[in-house]
Amino acid sequence: MDRMNQPNATHVIYVCCIIFLPFIFNTAYAQQISAMDNYALNRPGVVMVKTVFSANVYVKNMKIDARRFNFLLDSIQRIDTNGIVFSAEQKLDIVLKEMNNNPSRFFKPTYDYIKQTQEITATGTGFFITGDGYVATNSHLTERDNTFIRRHFILSAFQQITDANISALEQSWATTFTEQQRSLLYNTYASVYSRLFSMELNDLRKNIYVVYRQDSTDKISYTETKSASVIIKGLAMPGKDIAILKIDSVSNLPTLKIAKLQLPRVGEQVYVYGYPGPVTNNDFVSAESSIEPTLTTGIISAIKKSVNGWPVLQMDANINHGSSGGPVCNSNGEVIGLTTFGSIENNGSLAAGLNFALPASIVKDFMDSVNVAPALSNATVLFGEGLNCFDQQYYKKALGSFENVKNLNNNYPTVDYYIANCKARINNGEDRSNKQIKNVLLVLGFVLLGVLLIIAYRKRK
Length: 461
Description:
By secondary structure, the protein is an alpha+beta fold. Helix content is 41%, strand content 25%. Among the domains are: 3-25 and 433-460; 56-123 and 142-202, no CATH class; 378-430. It has a seven-stranded antiparallel beta sheet. A six-stranded antiparallel barrel has the order 8-9-10-13-12-11. A hairpin with a 5-residue loop joins strand 2 and strand 3 (134-137). It is elongated.
């Protein structure tokens, strides 16, 4: 055999490395992540946005005209003496119907005013775009039409005042109204307040809050509520329905990454986060768990254009009132859009699976206009690295990343769960790096054996 063609130790080592090293050091991570990892990565940075409108509603107090009311009762009594006998309930029906037919005869104003403090809350979704507290959401969550607010406040005040008036009548007359009688009284009072006693709305105030999850040192989750200011906002649909909010005195908050691509492709998988009203307000769901966002999935169904010409993303992922402003993420965990509006059925309800998001490029335009640069916080970068290692079963490496997250943000959501999980798996001997060391020693043994075989072969030659 030609000496140049004889195997040597270097050749053997090289071949062994080519064969075995890809299996030992296979730490490259796939770019796409599962729905579970998508939620684990992005869930901490999804927030609830609340706008609280409050005002004082003033209305003149009123009382029943005793003289005319007694005259009505006397007239009913005279009918009884003429041979037509009514039951107590029939007499009450006659009184209530007569009051409803001629409310101006039986009700008169006083000089006192009733003051009712009313409050309405608009709830939606948003997400942190920087670690120091910038939030992206929908503009329509922070604004309400004045006519809508006035109508809502006055109706709410009417409800409270009318309930109080009906209860007072029941107590005064020592009776309990039937549902039909109560409904008739509501109509009576509605006529009185709309035509005789106007309601005035004063001292309208608006406060915007960002609500997000924190984990305490004793591993108990709680909600943090911080007042937010509007940095920039567009107009509600058909405008560019985007708002950038800011909360103060925070750092290294969990953030979401905004995708660089301008538009996704039709058919691309999407993951949508939000706080749908039917879940948030469900009587059978605990109040403390309302801060956990809902994840729905679907695909990009089409790329449409708004009536004003910019693109909107149609998707079939289910959303509902309260999901507005939530992030729409791709399979890489990046934000590609902002949930904004749905389609309305003929009965006025939302059409399932026919929903729209504004693309991330429009969100970026708003951020650029106020010099806000979206960026992952250091805590989120480390948290993502920890999740990657955790999924690959490198629990010691993951533990180091999660503990660094803890050092940067002691209340980072779910990090305590992963720290405890990593420690348990390390103690159980499940860490992949231990197996990796065994594999390395095994390969070195093969290499050494190969070298010894070559040496023995040369000696024989």
